[in-house]
Each structure stands twice: as C-alpha cells, then as structure tokens.
Design a protein that fits this description.
Blueprint lengths: L2 E6 L4 H10 L4 E6 L9 H11 L3 E4 L13 H22 L2 E7 L22 H16 L4 E6 L2 E2 L6 H11 L3 E4 L3 E2 L2 E2 H14 L3 E4 L6 E2 H14 L9 E4 L19 H7 L6 H13 L1
Parallel strand pairs: 1-2, 1-3, 3-4, 4-5, 5-10, 6-9, 7-12
Antiparallel strand pairs: 8-11
Length: about 290
C-alpha cells in the first residue's frame, strides 16, 4: 500500500526538488507551502494534518535567513523551534513518522574533524540555536516516531543559494572575493532527495547526517562553479576569484569554521552512498542549462 506523505516547505529549493523526485515513487505526496500552512500555528497545523492524515511528514520548512535571524529571533524561533514542537506532538499522538531537516549550524566548528550525530552541539548563532531547539523538541516529544536529518551548504537550481548567487555575480562582476577558511561540504538537493527517499522507505529514528562526499571551502566551491559553468557554456568567460579570510567579510551571524558532517551511520542505516560534491555540481548545472 502506498504511503501518504505530507511535504512541508514545498516552495523552498529542497521542497521543489523533492516534488520532482517523488513523482517516480509509489506514494501520494501532498506538498504544502507556508501560504497553505504555517507550522508555527498549532491550531491550523492540527486541523490540516487531521484532515490529510499522513503516514509520513517531511519537514523542510524553516527560517533560513541566517544573518537576519540575529535581529528577528522571534520569527526564527517560531518556524525553527515552535513548528517542529507542534509537529512532534502530532506524530507521536497519531503514531505516524516525521523526518525533520536540520543543519550543521548546530555545531561551532571548533572540533576540526567530521561531526558525528552524537557529538556535542554548541551553535554560534541565533539561527543555529533555534534549529537546535527544534531538534530537541522533536527528539524529546517523538523519539520513537522521528528522524532528525542534518545537512549543510544546501544548493540547487532553484531560488537563491550559493550556486545561483555565484553564477549571477560571475556574470556581472569583474572579480570576486570568497571566504576560504570556512570548511564544509556542499549538498545538492538532488543527492539530499535520494537520501530522504531512502529514509522514508526505512523510517529510522534518531539523528543522522547527510551531505555530498568530499570537503571544500567556499572558495573551492566558487572556483568549481565557475569552471563547470564555463565548461557547460553557462558563463562566457572566467573572472578572477580571490580567497579571503572570514575576518575580511564580517557578517551579523557567526559561522562554524569547520562543519564537515560524518555520514558513516547514515550510509549503514539507509544503504545510501553520497556522490562527490563536484560530481553533483555537474548534474545541477546541467539542470540549470535545461
């Protein structure tokens, strides 16, 4: 019997990718954007979910404006902490299953080794703190009915993200400065969607990590974007890209300096292998070309 899945955050870059991916699967996918359901409104959430009666909920809804959250903590907390709390209560009561997306920003980056799901969390920003609060609500209220899936540096062909921003700037500017001392792993929504589909099939509980394979700085990622975009004819010419330290590009929110996520447990539990981030980048730029 096919599963009924509610996807929250349908209009975001991951939500749009998941809608395309799940078309090939034996399930009924009901995709809801914030205009349809604000997950911070518990009354509305209970009414909508009660009517839809899903077997699975994928929560890709979040407040992701990292710097803006520093002065807009109420809205960030409503979406990232209160919303997941309401969802966790509902799935526990109904004995359904929740996949809740979280972030590498729950870590400080001080370890300088890949973070495992069991490592101590210590967020540096309001955004990271609110996402951690959401995780804790989900784990406390629906421990046996939920998976927290952390990811990092998410990008796609959709909307505004590092890839689409870099492509725009590379077409407009004569040169770029890009931070080279923040280390992590880019995560294509294509690869993330494959992981989520595997998780929906197996329904594990706990906390897992997913990114593409490999390691990069933002500078490395920018250089690779330009190289591949030129190769595929998306950009006409190369511009100089200069590596700079984080201190030369101050932002309201502090970022982890090292946030590579250890995926060993995920690969074992879900039998899912990540592609290298450079290979995923080729696929995403091909999607933009279409």
């Amino acid at each position: 019997m096919s599963q009924k899945i509610v996807l929250l955050g349908a209009n975001g870059q991951l939500g749009q990718t998941l809608q395309q991916h799940f078309k090939t699967m034996d399930c009924e996918l009901l995709a809801l954007g914030r205009d349809t359901l604000d997950i911070s409104d518990e009354t509305a959430l209970r009414k909508t979910l009660g009517e839809l009666a899903p077997d699975v909920i994928i929560n890709a809804a979040a407040y992701t404006a990292v710097d803006q959250a520093e002065t807009d903590d109420l809205d960030a907390r409503a979406a990232n902490a209160a919303g997941p709390k309401h969802l966790a209560r509902w799935v526990k009561e109904q004995n359904s299953w929740l996949l809740h997306l979280s972030t590498d920003f729950v870590f400080s980056g001080r370890n300088h080794r890949p973070y495992t799901p069991d490592d101590q969390t210590d967020p540096l920003s309001i955004y990271g703190r609110t996402k951690l609060e959401g995780e804790l609500h989900v784990r406390y209220l629906a421990r046996d009915n939920s998976l927290v899936l952390r990811t990092s540096w998410v990008y796609s062909q959709y909307g505004r993200n590092f890839l689409t921003t870099m492509l725009r700037l590379m077409a407009e500017k004569d040169s770029l400065n890009v931070v080279d001392d923040q280390i992590g792993t880019p995560s294509s929504t294509l690869g993330l969607a494959r992981c989520i589909a595997a998780a929906v099939d197996k329904r594990p509980v706990g906390i897992l990590h997913w990114t593409d394979a490999g390691v990069a700085s933002w500078y490395d990622f920018a250089v690779a974007i330009q190289d591949e975009a030129i190769k595929q004819g998306l950009l006409a010419k190369a511009i100089p890209i200069h590596p700079i330290p984080t201190t030369a590009y101050p932002t309201p929110a502090r970022r982890p300096s090292f946030s590579v996520l250890d995926k060993t447990a995920t690969m074992a539990v879900l039998d899912c292998q990540p592609q290298h981030w450079r290979r995923e980048l080729v696929h995403v730029i091909k999607q933009i070309q279409k």
